Amino acid sequence: MNQVEKVTNLFASDLSIVNIGLEGFHDSVEEQGIESFQLDWRPPAGGNAKLIEILEKLNR
Amino acid sequence: MVVYNKVNENAYYDSVTLMVISSKISVVEGVRHAAVMMGTDHNKEIMKGSNILSAEGEKASASDMIIGLEADNDDVIKEVLAVVDEELQSKTTSDDDVKTKFRTIDMAAKRIGQLNLAVISVPGKYAKNEAMKALNNDLNVLMFSDNVSIEEEVELKEKALEKGLLMMGPDCGTAILNGVALGFANKVSKGKIGIVGASGTGIQEVTTIIDKNNSGITQALGTGGRDLKEAVGGKMMLMELEALKMDSATEVILIVSKPPSEVIMKKIIAAIKDIDKPVVTCFLGGDPSLVDESGALAMETLEDAAHAAVDLANGKEVSKITFTIPTSQVEEYVRKEKEQLKDSQTYIRGLFSGGTLCYESILIMKKKEFNTYSNVALEGKYVLENPDVSKENTMLDMGEDYFTEGLPHPMLDTRLRVARIKEEAKDEKVAVLLLDLVLGYGVHEDPAGDIAPAVKEAKRIAEQNGRYLSVVASICGTDKDPQNIEEQEEKLKEAGIIVMPSNAQATRLASLILEK
Predict the structure, then answer these.
(1) What residue ranges define each of the domains in chain B, with the CATH number in brackets?
(2) How far is the CA of B380 from the CAs of B9, B226, B384, B385, in angstroms?
(3) What average pLDDT does range A50-60 have in this prediction?
C-alpha cells in the first residue's frame, strides 16, 4: 500500500474524533456538526510518577 | 487574613476548566489570592509560592483537586466555595451525555468502529502514551500538548509513518481537516489550496486571507513547531507534502514555517521538485533564494503567500501586496495619526496573541529599519531581558511560555494583554500600539469585547497625560467563524483602533506612522 494512501483516504472520509483533554476542543468540533467523543480521561496511576514509570515498563 | 484549602479527592478536571474557575474566584470581593488546581507537586509549589497552600492542601495527591485561597474572612471563603460549586455543577450538567463514558482510547476505538482521529491535549508528560495508543489503534493524531520531549516526538512520528498515519504535533495548535477546524482554527471555504504548516497562527493567517479573497482550501495540515529541526528531520512535513501531492482535490500547495536548517531544506527542496503542482513557500525570515532551485515561489509574508496561492489557484499572475486599501486611505490614516503625536513619541509596542504574527511583524519592522526588542527576538542582542518591561520598540508574543505559566493562552484569556495595553499607555515615548485579534474555534468568544475597552482606557491614560496614542490592529478571522467578525471589527473601530486587512498591512501602517 502507498505510504500516504490512508491519509488521502482520510481526506475523503467523514471525521470521527476522540478528544482527550481540553473539553473546549470537543465542544467546538460538535458545534461544527462533527462526531466527537470526549474521553473521561484521568492521569494514569492517579498521577503518581513512580507508578506510571512501572506501568510503562510493564506495557513495553 | 485567612488561608483556606479544600481538597476534593479523586476529582479530575482539565487545566483550562480550572484556570477559568481560578480567574472567576480571584475577582470575588475580599479575596487576596486564589487558585483551583490539581494537586501535582508542581502545582503545590506554585500554590505555596502564592501563600495559598495549607497543611490540608499539602496532603493532596495528583488526582485530587485543591481549592486554595487567602481571603479577608470566613464569609468570603463561603462565597468562593459557592462559586466553585456552581461552576463545577454547570460542567457536570453540560457533560451529562452518553458519549462521555469511555475512559481509554483502546476502549473508545474498540467500540466506535469509524473513529479516525484523536485530538490530544492532556499535560505533556502523559501525552506521548496517549498518542501511541491512538496510533496503535490506527487513529491519526493531532497533539496540542507541549512539553513532550523531542525523543518522544521522533518515536511517535516514526510509528505514524510506519502505519501511514498523520501525527500532527506535539505543540500543533491548528489544523483544518476536511473543512473541520481543529484546535485554534477558523472556518474557511473549501477550495483548491492545500496547506502544510509548522506554525499555528501562520496557518490561521494564510487560511483566513485565502478565504477573504474568495478562494478556499482542501486541507491545512499541522506538523508541530519542531518538525523541521534536524532531530525530527521534517518527517511529518514530508509525509504531508506527499499526501497533498497525491490528493486530487489539491491543485496548489502552500508551505508555512520558520526556515529549516540546510540539511532539512535540501530534503524539502527535493520533495517540492517531485511535486507536479504549483508550490508556494513562506519560510518566515528565510532567504527566498534558498528555495529557487525547487521551482517553488518563495514569499516573505503570510499575506503574500496566501495571495500567491490564490492567484495560482485562479490561474492568474502572482503579485505582491503592500496595501489592499486605497493609497489615499493609507495616506489619510498616516497623516491624521502623525498630526496628533508628539515628536517625543517614537516607539511601537506590539502585543500579540499569535506567535507567528509577532514574528512576522518583527521581520517587517526590520525591513523598514526598525529594530525591535522581543521575547521571541530574531537576534540575541534584541532579546528582552525582562518580558514584563518593554524597551524602545518592543514586540511581545504573549502566548509564549513566560506569559502562559499557570494561565490560559491569550487567545482564550485576555487578562494579561488587557493589563499590558494599559501599562504601555503610561510610557510617554510610545506612539503606536500594534495588536492582533484572533477569531475562530477554540478561542475567546468575544475578544474585542475585552480588548476595545482596554484600548479606550489606554487612550484615556495617554490623553490625561497630554498625549495621543495611536492603535493599529488586524483581525485574523472569517465571516464564518463563531464570533461575528463584523461586530468584532466594529467594536475595535469604535474604540479608535485602525483595523487593517492583515497583520502585514497593520505592521506596515504602524511603521509609516512611526517614520519621521
Answers:
(1) 2-98 (3.30.70), 102-171 (3.40.50.720), 189-321 (3.40.50.261), 327-514 (3.40.50.261)
(2) 47, 20, 9, 10
(3) 66
- Bin B179: left if φ > 0, else alpha if -120 < ψ < 50, else beta: left
Among A6, A15, A34, beta carbon nearest to B164 = A6
Regarding beta strands B65-71 and B31-38, do their DSSP bridges make them parallel or antiparallel, or are they unpaired? antiparallel
Cβ atoms of residues B145 and B169 within 8 Å: yes
Amino acid at B488: Q
Joined together, the cell numbers standing for residue B273 give 521538485
A54–chain B Cβ distance below 8 A for any pair: no
Q: Half-sphere exposure of residue B154, counting CA atoms within 13 Å on the CB side? A: 9
Which of B17, B177, B180 shows the shortest C-beta gap to A23?
A: B17
- Beta carbons of B14 and A32 less than 8 Å apart: no
Query: Chain B contacts of A1, Cβ < 8 Å?
Result: 164
ipTM of model: 0.89
Coil, helix or strand at residue B31: strand
N residues, chain B: 516
Which 3 state secondary structure label does DSSP give B119? strand
- As averages over each run of 10 residues, the pLDDT of chain B (516 residues) reads 91 83 89 90 88 93 91 93 88 55 90 94 92 97 94 98 97 96 97 96 98 98 96 97 97 95 93 97 92 93 98 94 96 97 97 96 96 94 96 96 84 93 97 98 95 98 97 98 98 98 98 93
Place of cell 487612550: B459
B412: amino acid identity, one letter: L
Q: Which residue of A has its CA nearest to B9?
A: A46
Cβ(B306)–Cβ(B205) below 8 Å: yes
Q: Residue A1: which pLDDT band, with cuts at 50, 70 and 90?
A: very low
Query: Residue B421 corresponds to which cell in the numbers above?
Result: 495595553
For B14, the closest of A5, A23, A35 (CB atoms) is A23
Please give the Cα distance from B431 to B470 (Å, whole number): 6
